[in-house]
Amino acid sequence: MRIPPTADEVERLFAGWRDDLATCRKFAPAARNYAVARLSADVGLRINEARMLDLDDVRWDLGRFGKLNVRFGKGSRRSGPRQRMVPLINGADRSLHWYVEDVWGHFGADHTLPGAALFPSERRPSGRAGTEVFRTALAQATARHLPTWAGKLTPHVLRHFCASQLYLTGMDLVSVQELLGHSWIATTMRYIHVHRTHIEDAWTAAHQRAENRWRGLTQ
User: Fold this and answer.
1) Residues with active-site annotation
2) For residues 167 and 31, what is the distance between their CA atoms, to the nearest angstrom?
3) Would you say 140 and 132 are in contact if contact means Cβ atoms under 8 Å apart?
4) What global pTM score does this model have?
5) Cα 16 from Cα 101, distance rounded (Å)
6) 147: closest CA among 2, 7, 12?
7) How many CB atoms lie within 10 A of CB 125?
8) What does the alpha-carbon distance between residue 15 and residue 96 come to, in Å, rounded to a whole number?
9) Domains of the chain
10) How does pLDDT run across 108-122, given as a tens digit for each residue?
């Protein structure tokens, strides 16, 4: 069971990580790693999916918030890459705007070249950063700012966090399934971790909605 940290804990992690960016020795790679972790927490992107994104895969013109053209999604039962469009909801549009406008240019990559990586390698701007770079950066940030989760918070756990938070705030399971790129909704259900009072909270909310509708009819 990859039970994720709470929303307050994740916010504490990213707040501390943001503060580090102001004083870190190598701003561009540190900010890149932060941006990738945010995509895992905000829209449930897998690390390899993020790694394989091109700059042109950010489609600001699509939808209300923009979308990511994820071309290397994980296929089911070894069926090969599965493409999907991921909307930049949940604040992902803001963090990605910041990264593209204020960070990407520091790598010295040529945005006119086809296939320019969204998350370039520090040493080879024409190449891509490796998945272990992102995993290590998250582990180090967790050890500094969320030590109770040191050694336990991985990019995959952030996917569980994303799914759980979106479900708790009202997104239906089918939409969460589509966002995460799952072939089966049963897989998505294993990503949803709710609070112990979730049933009681849902019952209370349902009765509140019914009461509000009744008041509207009697007024």
Assistant:
1) 46, 74, 156, 159, 182, 191
2) 28
3) no
4) 0.86
5) 22
6) 12
7) 15
8) 16
9) 7-218 (1.10.443.10)
10) 988 888 899 999 999
